[in-house]
Design goal:
113 residues, alpha+beta, Arc Repressor Mutant, two-stranded antiparallel sheet, 12% strand
């Protein structure tokens, strides 16, 4: 059996914390790596937002073990968005949470009317 590939991604401390919290709250997957894979397969934004709060010196590392098929999928996504794999993962996570926050704000606004 082939060894799985490892992908390393740096995310901001806020996104690192949010990955775990969101996964636990929504009973998706309890690890950050699984949450990132969930986002990659279930979230398809037209454009990625750039996480300008990210600084590599304080970034938090996430290690994701992927199969050949998953790696190919991720490489294709990175190529589609014209970014490196690490940047794809970081910005995909950031974009996902920004979209979720906007949906929540919109829902709360409608409920208060």
């Amino acid at each position: 059996m082939r060894k799985p590939h490892q992908i390393w991604a740096l995310v901001s401390p806020a996104m690192h914390k949010k990955l775990k919290e969101y996964a636990v709250e929504n009973q998706i997957a309890s690890t950050r790596a699984k949450m990132i894979m969930y986002i990659l397969y279930n979230f398809h934004p037209d454009q990625l937002l750039e996480d300008y709060t990210f600084q590599s010196r304080v970034g938090k590392m996430v290690n994701i073990k992927v199969s050949d098929v998953e790696l190919e999928y991720i490489k294709n996504l990175a190529q589609r968005y014209n970014v490196t794999i690490s940047r794809l993962l970081r910005n995909m996570v950031y974009t996902y949470f920004r979209v979720m926050e906007k949906k929540e704000q919109k829902t709360n606004f409608i409920k208060t009317k």
